[in-house]
Amino acid sequence: MWKKKTTDLKKKSPNLKNKLDTVFSRFIRLRDARKDGTFQCISCG
After folding, report:
1. What is the pLDDT of residues 3-41, one digit of tens each?
2. Is the distance from CB of 11 to CB of 1 less than 8 angstroms?
3. Cβ(39)–Cβ(33) under 8 Å?
4. How far apart are CA 6 and CA 1, in angstroms?
5. What's the Cα-to-Cα distance from 7 to each of 3, 11, 40, rounded to whole Å?
6. Separation CA 33–CA 41 (nearest Å)
7. How many CA atoms lie within 13 A of 41 on its CB side?
8. Is 41 in a helix, a strand, or coil?
9. Whole-prediction pTM value?
């Protein structure tokens, strides 16, 4: 009767994941930034 659109979701999922990763990374960098705009890298120290 009605077909599920699972193929569209599978195609959009990696693209959406990459976009969300970019936005979240930017949020974390801005959240942890000092008032002068610099920040301390988590992995480098």
Report:
1. 666 666 566 678 889 999 999 999 988 888 888 988 887
2. no
3. yes
4. 15
5. 11, 6, 42
6. 10
7. 3
8. coil
9. 0.55
